[in-house]
Amino acid sequence: MEQSLYYRDTTTGTTQEIMSRTDQNPTPIHLSLPPDHPASIQFSHWLAAFNTAGEQTLVAYHSGSIFPYSVASRDIGSLQHELRLARASEGFNVIEAESISSPSTLVVVLREKKRPQYVRVSISVDVSNPDYPVTKFEIHPINTPLKYIPKDDPRRAEFEKALAPLTAERRKMVVEGLKDVLREQYVYPGLVEKITSALDTSLENGEYDGFEDSEKFAQRLTSDLHSTAHDLHMSIAFREPHPPLDDNDDSKPKPRKLFEHFKIVNFQFGDVVLDTDCAPGKVIATLPINGFVPSTEEHAEDWKKIQAAIGNIVSSVADADALIIDLRNNGGGVPHTVVFIESYILDDAPLHLLDFVDQQGKTHNSFFTTPENNLPSGTQRFGGTKPLYILTSKNTISGGEDMAYNLQAFKRTSAIIGEGNETTAGQRILLLK
User: Fold this and answer.
1) In this structure, are residues 226 and 232 in contact, taking their beta carbons and an 8 Å threshold?
2) Read out DSSP for 84-102?
3) Pick from 209, 229, 249: which residue ends a domain?
4) Which of 47, 83, 129, 258 is the most buried (most CB within 10 A)?
5) What is the pTM of this model?
6) pLDDT confidence of 24, banded at 50, 70, 90?
7) How many Cβ atoms from other residues are within 10 Å of residue 191's Cβ?
8) What residue spans carry the Polar residues bias annotation (predicted)?
9) Percentage of the chain lying above the pLDDT 90 cut
10) Domain-embedded: residue 245
């Protein structure tokens, strides 16, 4: 199996291989943490609450100042994000304590209960407070650590090659490959030169010399892209590939059944609220959308069931007098689903909303709203005339920005309200090969 370093743009899902290596498989283990270590104590409390995947349990744990979401990384930076991860992973087991020397900090490796996937967590607590409140919490996916690949695994040599320390030559290859991808694909040529120049400067000044771990090098490159381009759609990932196809199967991977998987996270919708108190005689609906799951036959075998479920959720606000769409925790997703949902709140379908265009001006995808008679049977539209408000925040990214922009561009919204006057997470990059 092969392992590769990738450049990925999450707006379009485009992934470009920069450098190829080799890969993985896991063995479950469980580790108990010391009961008298402050950071371990607080981490264990969090993990116990997280592994229940229960909303009320997590709300109770995060109440007060024990663990404010503001100190956490994006994957658990809100109740919605945390629930999404808890339900998708079915919880975690502790595999290894990487750093436990300081009473106030802990770094551990966890393994999902559902899938053979790993994450690294670092937590810091305030030891001057007897409750040990969390002051910082980071959780990030990692590749399978080499130590968990059995010595007798016939692919062990491939894994060792894949996870070998980076040399100066290979670091330079990665940087040059990244620069080539940016020049070929990124929409703003002027900004490309700024980014590539910054990468060259960091390489020449020896800022990358200490990076022998591919995952940490990928994180540093991602940070450099963000600081130069201010576009959070771009990232570098060192990751394990999908399992190879059967030797006799030359076809593309077939779409899988995804309905039950997405049902666990309510198709990335939060709880709908129908408020009858703030405006007497009126119903004000709030529809939180935390992401956009795949909903076409290209991505899911049971796509019609997925669309029907999404349509039913959106239909639950159809009779409201006004609608608030809450995109404050929206992490993006599939653009087809963005447009599908907008079919319920924009008139004059099929309405041409956007195109994906490369640097040469060639259109690769065009997106149109769905006519009412082609929407799932029994679903109802909110329509294109009643008051509509959009909530955004710095956590609104990609597809969330797409939805907000479309509704603003077609003058469908009464207002777009940024939390604390914040901008959204990044530029709305639609033009990428």
Assistant:
1) yes
2) HHHHHHT-EEEEEEEE--S
3) 229
4) 83
5) 0.73
6) very low
7) 16
8) 1-27
9) 61
10) no
